[in-house]
Amino acid sequence: MTGGPLRVLIADDDDLMRAGLRAVLSSDDTIEVVGEAADGLEAVTLARDTAPDVVLMDVRMPRRDGIAATRELGEAVPAARVLILTTFEDDDYVFGALSAGASGFLLKRTRPEQLIEAIHTIAAGDSLLSPSVTRTVIDQMAAAAPPDPAAAQRLRGLTARERDVLMLVARGLSNAEIAVELYVEESTVKTHMKRILAKLDLRDRAQAVIVAYETGLIRPGLAR
């Protein structure tokens, strides 16, 4: 992440949406809009040129959709973090976007202050996942892809408590909620999460949720 304002790239095929997002972000001096893209292909090209900290990525776009663009960005500009902009109608795409490397999602109708907060959250290295998406969309998509027994070997290096934390993360609980569930301090949960990410070579909480499903640590229907 840069030392100055957060560099943000907007990718959306709706001209009015891009204009609205730029207006909101330009009103905050902690954020600099470094470019606008009308499709996924242009988003990847601009990201290479502008090196953004965060890319606000629509899902349904021409030439290259947001999921494909997110996957390509992970290789072309690995430092850029992707925040998916979605509507309820796009929920079926959320799991694919997270699997492609997105760090979270945000509903397009969110309030301006929430958008700015979300950008800072993503840029700081955290992920943005709501319990509702964890419990429905990811659960639904995981049902179509049974756990891989070989993938479960990835969890061998985790302690019992780290497995507990990972399972609760996959159920959609926040750090504060996990702390209550396990009768520990929130700072302890954060420490466990850092170790889980390091041991599993994961970038953020979003990837941890995917791994929890892929390894069978949590099964569809149990994310409640």
Automatic annotation (TrEMBL):
Keyword Aminoacyl-tRNA synthetase: no
Alphabetical list of SUPFAM superfamilies matching this protein: C-terminal effector domain of the bipartite response regulators, CheY-like
Occurrences of domain Response regulatory (ranges): 7-123
A GO term, aspect molecular function: DNA binding
Annotated Pfam families: GerE, Response_reg
Name used for this protein in its record: Response regulator transcription factor
Domain of life: Bacteria
Modified residues annotated as 4-aspartylphosphate in this record: 58
Organism: Actinoplanes aureus
InterPro entries, per the entry: CheY-like_superfamily (IPR011006), NreC/VraR/RcsB-like_REC (IPR058245), Sig_transdc_resp-reg_C-effctor (IPR016032), Sig_transdc_resp-reg_receiver (IPR001789), Tscrpt_reg_LuxR_C (IPR000792), WalR-like (IPR039420)
Keyword Ribonucleoprotein applies: no
GO BP field: phosphorelay signal transduction system; regulation of DNA-templated transcription
Start and end residues of each HTH luxR-type domain: 151-216
Keyword annotations of the record: DNA-binding, Phosphoprotein, Transcription, Transcription regulation
